[in-house]
Structure formats: structure tokens, C-alpha cells
Design goal:
It contains 8 helices and 7 strands. By secondary structure, it is an alpha/beta fold. It has a single domain (8-190, 219-248), classed as Rossmann fold, CATH 3.40.50. The chain has a 7-stranded parallel β-sheet, with helices on both faces. β5 (136-141), α5 and β6 (180-187) form a beta-alpha-beta unit. It is globular and about 45 Å long.
Length: 254
């Protein structure tokens, strides 16, 4: 039996990268998927690809900074599929890059809204739907930045991603007794459009790859498999964890 057979999942940040790969894998494993992101055309194409492969997907474009959008994603899942079992709150942004003392407050606040507040808003409206099913799984996307390492020039990104760890721990403690599991993944360098935006030369990519024990960047599909584990009943006794997917970055000093 497929690992998510009969389950319904929300995936944000699904138009590219980790979110896109995870939505496709969830669908391949039997889940009905509600995919969300700002880019409507890319979302529609993703939903078409999932349906063409025999899966079931609904695309709903919007801005994760909006609480109404968080409500709408849950409402779409309940209206179209009758339930919600899994939520992968994955949407994110790099935010302002540069010395911390030069970070613009407006840019800081936008990064906070996209990376951290949106995750809180998602969970705020996902938890009640999960509780109706007797529980479920919420997964957030943080980063090694702000947890394993402090990269110069990424104050907003690192701070917001570190905040997701605290949010995970609180939600796991609050709703664990009711069957809701909450975990957060900490990827290292993953070859996504965001990764290439920050590492825009071959030299930068080679330098960053060398910081990993595996001496390469990861692939979105590799991260998706770890997210699938946290979404599925295979991780039934796993909650409140920070799940490193870092290619050995955290243990490498060569």
C-alpha cells in the first residue's frame, strides 16, 4: 500500500524546488494534494503533471503572508477532499542579504512574514482540521542556517528559520496529546532556484558543496523523501524534532 493512501495534504511553496518535488511524491504515494504558492501558472502546471501521472491535485494560488490564504487552503482541502491529514509549510524567501547593520527594517519584516509568520498562520488553521481526524502531521522547512551554522549576511533568513524550531517544539507539545505531530526539516545546500540565486557563480557553488561530507548539493527529490517519512505513519512516534537533511554539513570540518 502507498504510504499516504487515503490522506489529504497541503503543500506551500509548491511551484518550485523542495515544495514541487514533495507535492509530486506525496501524490505518487497516494495523497490528494492541495498545492499553494504565489505563481498561478506554475501551480496549474504542477497540478496537471500530477493528474497526468494518475494522482489528484488542486492548485490554489495566493500569498502565504495572508491569514485569509491560510484559511482558504484548509477550506479547499475540506471542500474538495473532505479532510486534512498532512501540512507541509514550506514557503520561504531569502530575505535581505548583507551585513546585519545594513538590513532594512521593511525587508526584515517581510522575511519574518514569509518565513515564520506564514508557518504560524498555516498551523493555526491546519491544526483544527487535523484534530477532526484524530491527529495528523505538520512539517516546516527551516535550514541549517540559524541552527547549525551562521552564514554572514543572512541575519533575517537565519533568524526566521531558527524561529521555526521554537514554533515546532511548542506546537508538538501542545497538540501531541491529541495526535498531532509537528516536525521541522533542516536542509543544507539543495539545488533549487533559491540556492542558485544565493550562489550565482560556479565558484560559490563549488565552495559551498565542499562544506558537505558528500561534497555536493542535495536534490529536491532527496529532501522530499525525508518529508514523506515525517508525513507518513512510518514516523508515528516522531514529533518535536529537528530533522537534519544536510549531506554531512554539520559534521564536516574539511
Amino acid at each position: 500500500m502507498s504510504r499516504l493512501s487515503g490522506k489529504v495534504a497541503i503543500v506551500t511553496g509548491a511551484s518550485s524546488g523542495i515544495g514541487r518535488a514533495t507535492a509530486k511524491l506525496f501524490a505518487a504515494e497516494g495523497a490528494k494534494v492541495v498545492v499553494g504558492a504565489r505563481r498561478e501558472a506554475e501551480l496549474a502546471e504542477l497540478a496537471r503533471e500530477i493528474r497526468a501521472a494518475g494522482g489528484d491535485a488542486l492548485a490554489l494560488a495566493g500569498d502565504v503572508q495572508s491569514e485569509q490564504y491560510a484559511k482558504d487552503l484548509v477550506a479547499a482541502a475540506l471542500k474538495s477532499y473532505g479532510r486534512l491529514d498532512v501540512a507541509f509549510n514550506n514557503a520561504g524567501t531569502l530575505g535581505p542579504i548583507g551585513p546585519s547593520t545594513e538590513v532594512d527594517v521593511a525587508a526584515w519584516n517581510e522575511a519574518l512574514a514569509v518565513n515564520l509568520t506564514s508557518a504560524f498562520l498555516g498551523a493555526k488553521h491546519q491544526v483544527p482540521a487535523l484534530l477532526k481526524q484524530g491527529g495528523g502531521s505538520i512539517i516546516f522547512t527551516a535550514s541549517i542556517a540559524g541552527n547549525t551554522v551562521g552564514f554572514p549576511g543572512t541575519a533575517a533568513y537565519a533568524a526566521t528559520k531558527a524561529g521555526l524550531v521554537g514554533l515546532t517544539q511548542v506546537l508538538a507539545s501542545e497538540y501531541g496529546p491529541q495526535g498531532v505531530r509537528v516536525n521541522v526539516i533542516l536542509p543544507a545546500a539543495i539545488d533549487t532556484p533559491m540556492y542558485r540565486e544565493f550562489n550565482d557563480t560556479e565558484e560559490k557553488q563549488k565552495w559551498l558543496a565542499n562544506l558537505h561530507a558528500l561534497k555536493r548539493a542535495g536534490r529536491p527529490e532527496e529532501v522530499a523523501k525525508s518529508v514523506l517519512y515525517l508525513a507518513s505513519d512510518d514516523s508515528a512516534f516522531v514529533t518535536g524534532t529537528t530533522h537534519l537533511i544536510d549531506g554531512g554539513f554539520s559534521v564536516t570540518r574539511t
